[in-house]
């Protein structure tokens, strides 16, 4: 049940990022919400599996930069999710520049935090 809640929160956050951030566009598929839900699923799976390893490996740089490098890790995970979704399912997001991916990762983080606080998910 917690994973489904995390998936829905991530899908909503991705939808907001696609709506707000220029340079992030939805590609493939005819139904936009299904594409966002599928991309949210892939991003949630990556956040569960790869993100902890990336956080541990980047801990020295994150400490030196006082946590700013953590945003770069989130941006790289967004790129990985986009690459996997576009490669496997031909549905996902198209990222124009690193700057738009950086802003999108910030938007996804903020919206996810707000949604998790509203639904009571303590992840």
Automatic annotation (TrEMBL):
Q: Which Pfam family, just one, is annotated for this protein?
A: Phage_holin_4_2
Domain of life of the organism in this record? Bacteria
The record's section on InterPro entries has:
Phage_holin_4_2
Keywords carried by this UniProt record: Membrane, Transmembrane, Transmembrane helix
Q: Which residues cross the membrane?
A: 33-50, 57-83, 95-119
Report if keyword Transmembrane is assigned. yes
Q: What is the name of the protein in this document?
A: Phage holin family protein
């Amino acid at each position: 049940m917690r994973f489904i809640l995390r998936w829905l929160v991530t899908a909503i956050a991705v939808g907001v990022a696609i709506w707000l951030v220029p340079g992030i566009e939805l590609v493939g598929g005819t139904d936009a919400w299904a594409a966002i839900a599928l991309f949210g699923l892939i991003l949630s799976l990556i956040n569960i599996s790869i993100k902890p390893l990336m956080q541990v490996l980047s801990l020295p740089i994150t400490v030196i930069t006082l946590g700013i490098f953590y945003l770069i890790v989130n941006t790289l995970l967004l790129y990985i999710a986009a690459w996997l979704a576009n490669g496997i399912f031909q549905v996902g997001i198209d990222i124009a520049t690193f700057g738009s991916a950086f802003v999108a990762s910030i938007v996804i983080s903020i919206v996810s935090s707000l949604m998790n606080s509203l639904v009571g998910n303590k992840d």
